[in-house]
Design goal:
A hairpin with a 2-residue loop joins strand 3 and strand 4. Strands 1-5-4-3-2-8-7-6 form an eight-stranded mixed beta sheet. Helix 2 runs antiparallel to helix 4 and helix 3 packs across helix 5. With 426 residues, it is of the alpha+beta class. It is 60% helix and 13% strand. The protein starts with 9 loop residues before the first helix and ends with a helix. The protein is flat, with a radius of gyration of 30 Å. The longest helix is centred in the first third of the chain and has 60 residues.
């Protein structure tokens, strides 16, 4: 990058106190200052042109995507319903194509609104923020059902009369690939949006509208993370988890975290999967590039009490099972890993604890420290507590208060919430 020497201000050049400068030198200095300003303006114009390019790409690829969905709805679903010899029942249509018809209509309407935004990046970002709840719901539904749909369509390609019917539809549409390829498009599309907004936010650094675009980026990234978590659980359930005899992992809610910890009493580290309602404990195996997880135990979140400090060791923490009177003593690799897991488990406990009002849950969650930014605060807290004399009386943690609470009236609830806040979050 070209660096420029400091230039006298225009106020100085316009004053009488510039003896020693010739008129040509003054003119040259003014010209140099103007060039610096012009370079900055030109650079911003280039960035804005790239943002416009990204918006146009978003709009153009939206049309391509709608056309792909239309091929499915008109070229396959409509013809299946019109032909009683297709080999499909209405239930099979729903199982294979899930909610593609709903997604197609949504994106037709969405494209119309996107077009009205023209190339205004702030309006585009606001539109996404407004529509993201619907986008998240639709695509989570689709991605959750996709593995079963994929198995079904593969099977339908091998049996008659569905095999011949699908081939006929493909020929009439003039497609090189079967319908399977288009069933992948929704997953690809929804994961494209974060990339577009990421590039847009980079180009708008320090410029008007950056904050709104970054808010949209944050929201679309959250959607992408949720969808990736759904795909991760599907992979785990279908091929990677060995020895699991329980129900579909989806019943435990979203997958929030997964990582490896040392565990007391176990020769090898344990690999943990934290879901909204359960903690899955496994042993990781790697062989010839393949990774599998051997099931060891499942802990329900509503059966957990946390002990955050063990033997004054910053990295150790205990998961206590209240009903079984057992515990898992874990050791994290660093303070950030421990903090992130403890905070996320606390959130899960708050969500699954009966007797808490929505207001109490919101207040408790607000008091939880940031998993990424609060390791220094925890470090100071533990050092301060180590300097204090050990109390002979047992101190109840906020989580213990939750699980031992006897809440029978509104006044009990108010007192209960206050005790939890004081114990855990202050």
């Amino acid at each position: 990058m070209v660096s420029h020497s400091p230039l006298p201000s225009m106020d100085y050049l316009d004053s009488d106190d510039h003896a020693g400068f010739t008129l040509s030198e003054i003119s040259s200095l003014r010209s140099a200052e103007s060039e610096v300003s012009d370079e900055s303006a030109n650079e911003n114009e280039k960035k804005l042109r790239h943002v416009v390019y990204l918006i146009n790409e978003m709009r153009d690829t939206e049309v391509t995507y709608i056309n792909a969905l239309t091929d499915v709805t008109e070229g396959y679903i409509k013809r299946i319903r019109e032909n009683s010899n297709s080999g499909f029942t209405e239930k099979m249509v729903k199982d294979v194509f899930i909610n593609i018809e709903e997604m197609r209509q949504f994106h037709i309407d969405f494209h119309e609104e996107l077009t009205t935004c023209k190339t205004n990046h702030v309006e585009v970002a606001r539109l996404f923020i407004k529509k993201l709840d619907t986008i998240t719901r639709m695509y989570l539904e689709y991605c959750s059902a996709f593995p079963y749909a994929w198995d079904m369509i593969i099977n339908l390609h091998t049996v008659e009369p569905s095999k011949s019917f699908l081939e006929e539809c493909q020929r009439e549409l003039g497609h090189m690939f079967p319908v399977d390829e288009r069933l992948h498009r929704p997953v690809q599309r929804v994961l494209k949006y974060p990339l577009l907004f990421r590039d847009m936010a980079k180009k708008l650094a320090g410029m008007e509208g950056q904050g709104t675009v970054e808010e949209a980026l944050t929201r679309v990234l959250q959607t992408a993370v949720k969808i990736n978590a759904v795909k991760r659980v599907q992979e785990l359930q279908s091929t990677e988890l060995l020895g699991w005899q329980g129900p579909n992992l989806k019943v435990m809610g979203d997958l929030l975290l997964e990582d490896q910890f040392k565990m007391a009493g176990a020769k090898d580290p344990r690999y943990l999967f934290l879901f909204e309602k359960g903690l899955l404990v496994t042993k990781k195996r790697e062989s010839d590039g393949n990774v599998t997880f051997v099931f060891k135990s499942l802990v329900q979140v509503d059966n957990i009490t946390l002990k955050e400090k063990v033997d004054e060791d910053y990295l150790k923490w205990n998961i206590v099972l209240r009903k079984e009177k057992e515990s898992f003593l874990l050791q994290a690799r660093d303070i950030d890993q421990k903090e992130q897991w403890i905070n996320e488990i606390k959130r899960c406990i708050v969500y699954t604890t009966p007797g808490l009002s929505e207001t109490q849950k919101e207040e408790l969650l607000k008091k939880l420290p940031s998993a990424r930014n609060n390791s220094e605060q925890l470090d100071k807290m533990w050092k301060r507590e180590r300097a204090l004399k050990k109390s002979k009386s047992k101190h109840q943690s906020g989580v213990e208060i939750i699980h031992n609470a006897d809440v029978n009236s509104p006044s009990d609830i108010a007192e209960f919430g206050k005790r939890v806040v004081e114990a855990v979050f202050i």
